[in-house]
Design a protein that fits this description.
single chain, 512 residues, alpha+beta, Protein Transport Mog1p, Chain A, 14-stranded antiparallel β-sheet, 24 strands, globular
């Protein structure tokens, strides 16, 4: 599936910290990304910073942080590091929330800060100078690097936790050369043993004096729940998820498969009038699920030509979608998923193709092959391998760490909200799923309840790790899908292919 656009910058990566300096919300998006503008003019002095009423929450970290009114938050997918990027309304600053990993247990926040300083200095070391030995005091770098340490604060505490803050002046990292400079402020917090959270604030140097109050206010708003309690709650949810799946038999999975045998859904932004004709159409998808042989995912093959692996019986799912990127471009994707009946083997492949739709875009793309992004995943027992590829880039192989008994296969992720309804009561269930967006296993919490004003409906709130609000799905008592409201207010709603064709045709949207 397509990813959100990202602000460009270059990574600082050194063995031990793997901290990424990126204003990235995701990778792979072809749009021209918003950037922290080097020509941003200083604004009038700010007396205070108004914050949004609902903070961002990171369930797995126990972290909540408030962001300024008008700022936007985007999930980040730069490896395993950038969890979210918060961007100013005028794009004059950005704040990355990062969770880098230390290379060895027992590293403290001071050691982490020392390594980060050395990493920044090395990144901007002047050509032809002799680089000081590792661990050399910062003063030894003064004439050897184009990065300047503005200040270092070692006695900082964020929500009672030990923290260190480093502020650097450095060349604009998207350019790497030239006179334009930016300020990057790193606040390093050790949230738990082996788990660091780094707040990376980026702004043009000319705007830093006025934007500093934004940084100080937002970072000071961060609160961390007790890591032990967070882990305990997650463990309990995982146990309930494992317990539920252990009680499900073939008939239960067949029930969920039947509900998704042939489903069309539209994605839209509802209009104030609540009418379909006034809604903004964003996309649609066709979901097909069935029980059969793995080889049936390839419609070009005849069953008599299947090899042993293709004859394996299991659950199959195909999700074909079209999303409107902008007036010039659409994104077509198709995902094919298989999991064996015993759940021990699975495979999937996702293809995403960018297509021009306006005459202007078609002329620009004339003679060029549409850009296609691909992901292929395979699992045998606890061993998982994922291969991703993008135009003009070498393929990458990912070996996600096995999360344990709470893992849910990719083919069942679409079915989980309906499967948890079989618990027949309001409860909280936890699962680990592989998330393509940031290429790793992530915890997903599903909360089942009933709206007080409508006991004929079951509600399943899916808390995605980096979302500020849950994705809320509504189902009838028989499990049929009513609607799903995404954290940003967009809605997935069942439709028919005839209704979809009529609606999109009336709005001049491409379906060919």
């Amino acid at each position: 599936m397509p990813h959100a656009p990202r602000l460009t910058s270059q990574p600082l990566h050194r063995i031990g910290i793997c901290l990424v300096c990126a204003c990235a919300a995701a990778t792979g998006q072809p749009e021209t990304p918003p950037q922290v503008r080097p020509d941003a003019l200083p604004q009038p002095p700010v007396v205070g910073v108004a914050l949004q009423p609902e903070p961002l929450r990171f369930e797995d970290l126990g972290l909540s942080i408030s962001i300024p009114e008008g700022a936007t938050s985007r999930p980040g997918t730069t490896g395993k590091v950038v969890r979210s990027t918060i961007v100013a309304p005028d794009e004059s600053w950005a704040l990355n929330i990062q969770t880098p990993a230390a290379s060895q247990l027992g590293i403290g926040v001071k050691d982490f800060a020392d390594r980060l300083m050395e990493e920044v200095f090395t990144r901007f070391a002047l050509v032809g100078v002799k680089i000081p030995a590792p661990g050399t005091p910062a003063t030894e770098w003064l004439t050897r690097t184009d990065a300047t340490l503005l200040r270092r604060t070692d006695d900082l505490r964020i929500d009672g936790l030990e923290a260190i803050r480093l502020a650097f002046s450095m060349p604009m990292m998207r350019d790497g050369v030239g006179a334009a400079r930016e300020v990057r402020v790193y606040t390093i917090v050790q949230a738990s043993p082996g788990q660091f959270v780094v707040f990376e604030f980026i702004t043009p140097a000319s705007a830093y004096p006025d934007n500093r109050i934004v940084h100080d206010t937002v970072v000071a708003s961060a609160t961390f729940r007790d890591p032990g309690k967070v882990e305990s709650e997650r463990g309990s949810a995982i146990m309930r998820g494992v317990g539920l799946r252990s009680m499900l038999g073939p008939s239960n999975y067949d029930w969920a498969i039947a509900l998704n045998a042939d489903v069309w859904e539209r994605l839209f932004i509802p209009a104030p009038t609540k009418t379909d004709r006034d809604a903004q159409e964003l996309g649609y998808r066709h979901i097909r699920a069935w029980r059969g042989a793995r080889g049936e995912l390839d419609s070009r093959k005849r069953p008599e030509d299947f090899d042993a692996a293709e004859r394996m019986q299991g659950y199959l799912l195909v999700v074909q979608s079209r999303l409107v990127q902008n007036e010039d471009q659409i994104v077509d994707s198709i995902g094919r998923y298989f999991v064996s009946l015993d759940g021990r083997e699975e495979s999937w492949n996702i293809l995403m193709t960018l297509r021009p739709v306006s005459e202007r875009a078609k002329e620009a793309a004339a003679g060029k092959k549409p850009a296609t992004y691909a992901e292929f995943g395979f699992r045998d027992g606890e061993r998982t391998k994922v291969v991703v590829s993008a135009p003009n880039e070498p393929s990458q192989e990912i070996l996600p760490e096995w999360p344990g008994d709470g893992y849910a296969p990719q083919a069942l992720v679409y079915l989980l909200p309906q499967l948890v309804l079989l618990g027949n009561r309001a409860d909280t269930y936890g699962f680990y799923v592989y998330r393509s967006a940031d290429r790793r296993m992530q915890f997903r919490k599903l909360v089942v309840d009933q709206p007080e004003d409508n006991t004929d409906i079951w509600r399943v709130s899916a808390f995605l790790v980096d979302a500020a609000a849950p994705q809320v799905s509504h189902f009838r008592a028989d499990g049929t899908h009513v609607r799903t409201v995404l954290p940003d207010g967009k809605v997935w709603e069942p439709t028919t292919v005839d209704q979809l064709v009529s609606l999109w045709s009336s709005k001049g949207l491409p379906m060919e």
